[in-house]
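User: two proteins, same treatment. go.

Assistant:
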Amino acid sequence: MYCILIYDVESKRTGKLLKLCRRYLNWIQNSVFEGNITEVKLKELILEAKKIMDEDYDSLIIFTSRDEKWMYKTIVGVEKNSLDNFL
């Protein structure tokens, strides 16, 4: 499945969550990630994120779709991390 993940956490937890998300998805900009991921891997990512997060303060928002082709992406301005250089 195709996934867009956005997080908002306290600054002292940002680095840990950034490293975790980079293991599963492609970094797009700041706290935004996207990519294809299996349902099992997504559940694993969520469980690991919960260990880092303070669920009373932090948030993790995940949008999923069956396939990237069902999503339309428009970029206005500079794309922070282009995926065009991947083979």
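Protein 2:
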Amino acid sequence: MDILKTATDWAKAEAFSSSFFIIFGILFVLASAGFWQMGKTDMARAYIIPTLVAGALLLTIGLGLFFTNKARITQFEKAHNANAPAFVEAELTRAESTLKEYKNVVFIAIPIIIAACALMILFMNTPVWRASMITAIALLVVILLIDGTAHARIEAYNKQLLLVEKQVKE
């Protein structure tokens, strides 16, 4: 099994996946512009800032992940050629750490925050608060969807790393 190819394929898939953060970020910014240009009611005008902020956050996340994963592809080859067993060990440590973060942040914290925002919608009567909570829920759902697929990829990558580690030790 060629772990360098597996690692490179994983990083390329992550770079592609991060482009969805960018796409959704652009959509949120466009929605903000739409609310700004065409919003006639207080509720519609209340969405301008929250959707702009959500779009900026998604663009920042997407661009950061894209460039990080692009750089990682060349680093993988250098690290693997320098010391393959150390590369596997470092990647295994990073993948396991990332899986723990996904478990805590993506699959526990984000659903709790979504539920809290949904409850706040019931109790907040001002348009700005309602628009902010609805936008926050939309933002978090986008993150949950994209990170759900990223979790599946890193889990499969981690299994491949464990197999290679087993082979190296034998």
